[in-house]
Every structure is written in C-alpha cells, then in structure tokens.
Amino acid sequence: MTDYLKDPEAIYLQSFATIRAEADLTGIGEDMQDVVVRMIHACGMVDIAQHVRSTEDVVEKLEFALVEGAPILCDCEAVRAGIAQKYLHGNALVVTLNDPGVPALAKQLGTTRSAAAVELWRDKLQGAIVVIGNAPTALFHLLEILDAGAPKPAAIIATPVGFVGAEEAKAELDLDIHGVPFITLLGRRGGSAIASAALNAIAKAIE
C-alpha cells in the first residue's frame, strides 16, 4: 500500500494550501476568494476559479440573510444534504422537488419537475437564499418568474451542471439584469456539491 496522509488537520491544511498555490485567483475580490477556494475543494478542479462570476455585494447580502435566519431554498436533496447545518442560524432548508403536487404541476406547465418545484417557492422567495446545484430548468424558471414580478430573494447561488441548458441558464444569470445578487460558475460544469460549498464558505465565516 502507498503511504498516505492520515491526520485530518494536516489533510485539511494541505488541501487548501495546494488550492491557493495552484489556482489563479487574479481579479477575484477578497471576500469571494474563500468562496472560490471552497468551490474548488468541492470538485478538485482549480481551473474553475476563472469561470466563477458574482455580483459585488453578494457575500454581504448572503451574510445578512444567514444571520437573519432567512430560509434556504434548494433545488434538490443533494444541495440540502451538502449544506453544513452547524454553521446556520436557524435557517430552514427547503426542498419542494418531492412535493406530491409537483408531477401534476410539471405536466400542467409543460416543464420539468425541477422547474415546477420552483413554483412552490413563490410565497417563500422574499429575502430568501436560493441554492441551485442540479437543474438548469430550475434556474431558468426562477429567472422567468422574477422577471414576471415574483418576490426577490436576498441572493442566488446557482451552479447547475449538464450538457443541456446549464451553460445557457448560468449565462442568463450572469447578465445581471434580474435585480438579485448572485454567485455562479459559467459553462457546463457545476453540481450540488459546488453550490453547497459556496454557501458553506460564507456561513462558516460568520459562525
């Protein structure tokens, strides 16, 4: 067997030291650097650093919403599972994807269950934290209802992954025309672990 590092603290320190040594964080604001490092740690790809996009005030807005106990609306169970509850301030983790009414609503709307589940966020959206890590259609539909006048969340973290719609949905968010602070990862790459890691980085900093 290959000799390997076993000390948890040493593994932790070496992991983040390696990321900071190898990732190009040029142009990333100081308050976003820890977030990007955590996103890299969640996927092992240092090159995503230059594809992360965020609004200038998003970290501040997320910190305030977390401290105020805002609900966290997640597009899937994997996002909810990845959020470290020990860093939260009583924030409810909400997933509507498996609500029994979602399949019929999806059929009625002619869309995916992930997008239909976003419809059930309407009465919770005001001042909430949105974390989307899986479904591009969830992000597309969220932006549609925001443009149609739905209440605005405090901020959006969106890193849906895939080959159909993911790149386009995140590019739409990055246009910054929807009036909501955001963090996203451009391109096809993404996933629930990356989305959760971004929120965890901010929540841990204000623990």
Quick rundown:
With 207 residues, the chain is an alpha/beta fold. The protein contains 9 helices and 6 strands.
Main β sheet profile? 6 strands, mixed
Inertia-based shape: globular
Q: How many β-strand stretches?
A: 6
The pLDDT mean sits at 96
Give the tally of structural domains: 1
| Sequence of secondary-structure elements | HHEHEHEHHEHEHEH
DSSP helical segment count: 9
Relative strand content: 5-15%
Task: Please describe what this structure looks like.
The model has no long low-confidence stretch (mean pLDDT 96). The chain has 207 residues and is of the alpha/beta class. The protein has a single domain, classed as 3-Layer(aba) Sandwich (Rossmann fold), CATH 3.40.50.10230. α1 (8-22) packs across α2 and α2 crosses α9. It has helices at residues 8-22, 30-43, 58-67, 77-82, 102-109, 113-119, 136-147, 166-174, 192-205; strands spanning 52-54, 72-74, 93-95, 129-132, 155-158, 182-185. It starts with 7 loop residues before the first helix and ends with a helix. The radius of gyration is 17 Å and the shape is globular. The chain has nine helices and six strands. α4 (77-82) links the parallel β2 and β3 (93-95). The chain has a six-stranded mixed beta sheet with strand order 1-6-5-4-2-3, sandwiched between helices.
